[in-house]
């Protein structure tokens, strides 16, 4: 059932309190720092949602997931679980992979149909897809699936993996790279052996390092390290991971931290002990980099919405708009010069730049408007750049202008090749579940019956029931 909740400040933190007629009142930590909560909230923007919803309204959010007309953000990243089989048995797994007595593995014909659904969303089709599981590399037809996604118009294709197959089979790495894979979303919890024993059940670190090396040998130049972050377990590993990533920028493009959520196989008795939120992550980054990267360098996802508006006006067609809830995630970019980290906010007035983009978006019409905008950008962007603090080898003005003019993944890829993304996305569980976040979610699961379901809703409410519905039985 849907119950009322109150989000309120108490002793400098933000809590969520729910009242259930059956189980009474209960509270959970929503956001551990009130100051950053209000700073992020300033960037809250509602999107238009999908103009061609896949399902009608019956029981209301979150039970009508499909997407329905109540949803406010189109699919930014489509998630497709290729299998629930896995070659690990992690104590912590929001997908509950490898423990069911049935197999969920859509046929390649079903996957093609599933891929078409987000591409056909209105007003704008999805351009990014992630193949997940279970462990997606257990599918022998993964190269064919990647190629199919590319042919259907996906420009960003990534695989969420534990890295075992990457570590053990260089030919496989070369094959999926040739098929069109863009990014490896690699489970990577830190650089200490004991972390992996706790989270993965064995010392997986050597596997991760071999996987990275094989990506290097196999021509994959975009790896994102994905850390499941648990308080008191691996919250001392963010600084070492940043250092490791900056030493391997030829292949590592980012770090994405996922504070542990209590769904799947996580002992709920540990909730209070291990709960960690996005402000905790930002503070850990500041502390473990000795202030080289501060919590104020981070912004919520919708902060970049003015870029979308300007690109849309420039190309005269709807574009992907990052209208997710401001408290779902946080990110920054850093540049590396020698042994120094240079956050983009150190040399670029990012808030002033976003205001400029929003202003320029109002008069991009026709050839004259385009020429004026290019002229304005070239003339005005330098006003927001501190040349003395800017990385020597980075022409930030050129990079930004190219992103606006080209509006392509190639332009974004050039920016990413010169920087390191550091971010966090906090997935919800039953204790901190907030429908306002769900309605603005941009990471969606596509399931075999044609529905598209927000990430947190799927894993918290729908996964078990729907997996059994589509199960093939024990193999």
UniProtKB/TrEMBL annotation:
One of its GO terms (molecular function) is 4 iron, 4 sulfur cluster binding. The keyword Phosphoprotein does not apply. It comes from the Archaea. SUPFAM superfamilies: Radical SAM enzymes. Residues 72-294 form the Radical SAM core domain. InterPro entries: Aldolase_TIM, GDGT/MA_synthase, Methyltransferase_Class_D, rSAM, rSAM_sf, Zn_ribbon_HMPTM. Keywords: Iron, Iron-sulfur, Metal-binding, S-adenosyl-L-methionine. NCBIfam families: rSAM_GDGT_ether. This is Radical SAM protein. The lineage of its organism: Archaea, Methanobacteriati, Methanobacteriota, Stenosarchaea group, Methanomicrobia.
